[in-house]
Amino acid sequence: MRRILSIATILFAALAVGRLVTPAAAQSLPTGFSDTIIASSIDQPCALEFTPDGRLLFTTQAQATVRIVAHGALLSTPVITVPEVITSGELGLLGVALDPRFPVKPYLYTHETLTAQRLHITRWTLTGDLAGTGDGQMTADPASAYELITDIPNQAANHNGGTVRFGPDSMLYVSLGEDADPCGAQDVTQLKGKILRLDVRSLPPGPGAAIRAQITPADNPYAAVADSNQCLVYAYGLRNPFRFQIDPVRRWLVIGDVGQDTYEELDLLAMPGASAGAAPAASNFGWPWREGNAGYSTCTGSEPALAAPVFVVDRSAQGGAAIISAGAYQSADGALPSWPAQYHGDLFFSEYYSGRMWRLSKQGGSWSTAPAVAGQSDAAYWATNLAHPADFRVGPDNQLWYLSQWNGAFANTGSVHRIAWVGDTLTPPPVTGVAVRLSAKPLPARLPVVLSYTLSATVVTHLRIYDVRGRLVRELLPSRTQTPADYQVSWDGADDGGSAMPSGLYWARLEAGTEHASVKLPLLR
Q1: What single DSSP character describes residue 303?
Q2: pLDDT in tens, 143-171
Q3: Sequence-ordered alpha helix ranges (H) in 187-305
Q4: Contact 2, 351 (CB under 8 A)
Q5: Domain 434-523 class in CATH
Q6: What is the pLDDT of residue 516?
Q7: How are beta strands 311-314 and 263-270 bridged, if at all?
Q8: Residue 144 DSSP one-character state
Q9: Which pLDDT band, with edges at 50, 70 and 90, does 252 fall under?
Q10: Cβ pair 509, 468 in contact under 8 A
Q11: CA dist., res. 496 & res. 342, Å (int)
Q12: What does the radius of gyration of the chain's CA atoms come to, in whole angstroms?
């Protein structure tokens, strides 16, 4: 990402001498969608996350706080002010994630730049209203810090990456920029220009610090090499992957990699068990050999095999630009519609400075701009005039949430937004060839939960359990071919790692050939 805080400096200077800053234009969305401000007057909101009960957590980049929106309002007390965060340039508190076993494992993870010229990935222990049944307030004592990584280089004031997200495999994925050292992105022994994959499931409670061996997944592509940095690398050759999102259904990382002068690019990276269509683990996305699909510069040796972006934007006429991935639109349950069916599985991204938003659909084997729908102000852009969006998530309500860092002036003009379908009432598409029904006594379900389904044809099936945020909890049935018959499968309430999941709302999703169906699992322990 480039120039965000340098622009802020210009704005502050303009305000200091009495010059007015023109407010951003109103958002333009297709017919049937609304953009609602949920919370406002925030100083540089940067990264967001949801709790299983629907509360929203977000970071403030320069103030280095984590805040909560609960019961439709911004709580006044921060969860934590992360100590020693340096905030000049593009630095600050850039990323946030909750442990996928929350609230059983009450851990918050952050991605921050510290005064010691290092970037840290840190775990904090949350206390307070973990279940979300009271006032919603949670806190994290700075003394609870468990440092996952403390030695990521941060010599430049830009290109830090900034995202931490848990994948459906319960691994923590981390994006790192190349710290203004382009060829560092090509060196798999340097923590620059990379996507890291960490296993935090076995770390002890309380404060502390991890060694690399504790957080290296056994199935990482370089897990067996001697270099401890390389063991953590999942993909490389990125310039500044400031924002990526998780597609929990297809198991893809949807990565926005900020370009140098000419091209912004969107990349797809496969997680274990992914659907076809994304680059595999250990992929080299090309920087600085390539910017987008075009040659850019060289490093030692000849150009290696590279993974191509799935979409490229020429931003040369615009000047400063920064792609912000909004990920794939997938409803949390995979079946109940909240947006029209034509949007399901489409990819979205925005550009930070112009506020334009692209919608991509798969056409003829490749991703391209989706056909315009009613109400689009421009056929090329699904939405326009989003005010400096910094992060997006599909929420537990299956609507698209985002953070606006500033609007017109800079300080305290950020906001939390919700893009929702408010058009005609949607009905689930008909399901043919397969039916799924839940058998559980009593309801809410007590363990074990018995899932029953009927197949009317020989098809390839896959049965998974998701939490309310759309994250994979358990693969009950790996992909297999099944013949016409009645089937029953039990779920013991544990995730893929064997940890017991807390009481709450879950979804079972059966994929059978081209059909799918899902059922709600309100689990009560």
Answers
A1: -
A2: 999 999 999 999 999 999 999 999 988 99
A3: 212-215
A4: no
A5: mainly beta
A6: 75
A7: antiparallel
A8: G
A9: very high
A10: no
A11: 31
A12: 22
Tell me if 359 sits within 8 A of 348, measured CB to CB.
Answer: yes
Q: What percent of the chain has pLDDT over 90?
A: 66
Contact (CB, 8 A) for 360 and 348: yes
Lowest mean pLDDT: which of 182-191, 417-426, 479-488? 479-488
The residue that leads in pLDDT, 338 or 429, is: 338
Q: Which parts of 202-339 are beta strand (E)?
A: 208-209, 233-236, 243-247, 252-257, 263-270, 290-291, 294-295, 311-314, 323-328
What's this model's pTM, rounded to 2 decimal places? 0.86
- The values of phi and psi at residue 118, to 5°, are -140, 150
**Whole-angstrom distance, CA of residue 97 vs CA of residue 228:** 24
Q: Where are the beta strands (DSSP E) in 134-270?
A: 138-140, 146-153, 164-166, 172-176, 194-198, 208-209, 233-236, 243-247, 252-257, 263-270
Confidence label for 282 from pLDDT (cuts 50, 70 and 90):
very high
**Distance (Å) of CA 408 to CA 29, 183, 355:** 20, 37, 12
C-alpha closest to that of 250 among 360, 330, 348: 330
In the chain, the percentage of residues whose pLDDT exceeds 70 is 90
Dig out the tokens for 347 from the structure: 């990819």
Closest CA to 218 of 227, 231, 236: 231
- Domain range annotation of the chain: 24-42+330-429, 434-523
- Measured CA to CA, the distance from residue 39 to residue 415 in angstroms comes to 5
Nearest in space to 437 (alpha carbons), one of 505, 512, 510, 519: 519
**Euclidean distance between CA atoms 373 and 268, whole angstroms:** 25
Q: What pLDDT score was predicted for residue 438?
A: 54
Alpha carbons 237 and 195: distance in angstroms, whole number: 9
Residue from 388, 369, 364 nearest 380 by CA: 369
pLDDT at 439: 61
**Cβ partners under 8 Å of residue 470, min gap 6:** 248, 249, 330, 331, 332, 333, 334, 394
Give the pLDDT confidence of 40-88 residue by residue, as tens digits: 999 999 999 999 889 999 999 999 999 999 999 999 999 999 999 999 8
Q: How far apart are CA 148 and CA 379, in angstroms?
A: 45
**Cβ proximity of 165 and 246 under 8 Å:** yes
- Beta pairing partners, 351: 323
